[in-house]
Amino acid sequence: MPSPHRPLIVRLRNWVGDVTLGVPTLQRLADHGYALQLVGKGWARDLLAGHGWPVHVLAKTARERVQQLRELKHAALAADPGFARRLNAVCFPYSFSSALEFRLAGLRALGHAYEGRSLLLARAAPRPRGVHELEVYWDLGNVLLGKPTPPPTTIGLRVSPAHRAQAAALRSAHGIEPGCIVICPFAGGTWAKQDKTWPAFADFAARDLPAFGRSVVVCPGPGEEAIARASFASVRLLPNVDLGTYAALLQEAALMVSNDTGPGHIAAAVGTPLISVLGPSDPALWRAWGPTVEVVRGEGTWPDASTVVDAVARKLARA
């Protein structure tokens, strides 16, 4: 096991779901004595605040990113004279450019062999195929530590006390009880060029969810507020909620119903019961991870609303 406080520079991926699925690997590395220096999107600071890891906001241009990594390298060398003689960075993204930036910064990075970038990495591990994305990230931890172990059954995302307080204040201001239902009817990107948004979500939220007698809440992200106001007018709207506060709201919710998108992964990561409504997405590779998750799919298509309603009733009955 490495001695405490050995710096390790880690480049995070750019999507909320990916960063959430990487949490078990990050926590494992921290538990083995690595002092993580994370580089990622600005929202990752709030999402990961409960773990106490520093998150450096990813610079905008390639030149600035290389300089950012060099500055982190110099700080790490001052803290650990042996830093330059070992694997000292982990590259979660698969892109050629991310590996190149590590190389230009003079870092010895571990990452998956992909897009012809093996020569840029100090160690390139074969990328596991046909496994869940959490297991792909976990594999890098196995390689770095030299101890292949199966991944945990839960993600264990930690929520900071400050974010819990902010969530409590938000609920109080809007008259929302802790045991509410949170929905995420949005989805970024596509799967096999198909939309990941359940077409019946608006009708389901307006017609079916009120029957359960709980507040129904939606927290739209940037660019989603207009959709929320137009299509989910009957739902309590909480805009501009940072991801740490969002995680705290979810932790106190009775249930989340979500498309295949980042907040669904957050709900599962904090142990909230989750109904994950999937259409084209492959659950074997990208389902939300954890024992509180129930995936609802149709036969080669989207599920009908009655199937989702039944799943919600089952989850709430166990609450």
Detail the poorly predicted runs. Answer: none
Q: Strand fraction band?
A: 15-25%
The profile of the biggest β sheet is: 6 strands, parallel
* Series of H and E elements: EHHEHEHEHEEHHEEEHEHEHEHEHEH
Number of strands: 14
The average pLDDT score comes to 94
Radius of gyration from the CA trace? 20 Å
| Span between termini | 40 Å
Counted by DSSP, the helix tally is 13
Give the class from helix and strand content and strand pairing.
Answer: alpha/beta
Range of helix content? 25-40%
Give me the side-by-side strand order of the main sheet: 3-2-1-4-5-6
**Overall 3D shape:** elongated
Characterize the structure shown.
The protein is an alpha/beta fold and 319 residues long. It has helices at residues 16-21, 23-31, 43-47, 62-79, 96-104, 133-145, 161-174, 201-208, 225-231, 243-251, 262-269, 283-286, 305-318; strands spanning 6-11, 34-40, 55-57, 89-91, 109-113, 123-126, 181-184, 190-191, 194-195, 216-218, 236-237, 255-258, 274-277, 293-296. The strands form 3 sheets. A 6-stranded parallel beta sheet has the order 3-2-1-4-5-6, with helices on both faces. The chain has a 6-stranded parallel beta sheet with strand order 11-10-7-12-13-14, sandwiched between helices. A two-stranded antiparallel sheet has the order 8-9. Strand 8 (190-191) and strand 9 form a beta hairpin. The longest helix has 18 residues, at 62-79.
Task: Record keyword descriptors for this entry.
single chain; 319 residues; alpha/beta; six-stranded parallel β-sheet; 13 helices; 17% strand; elongated
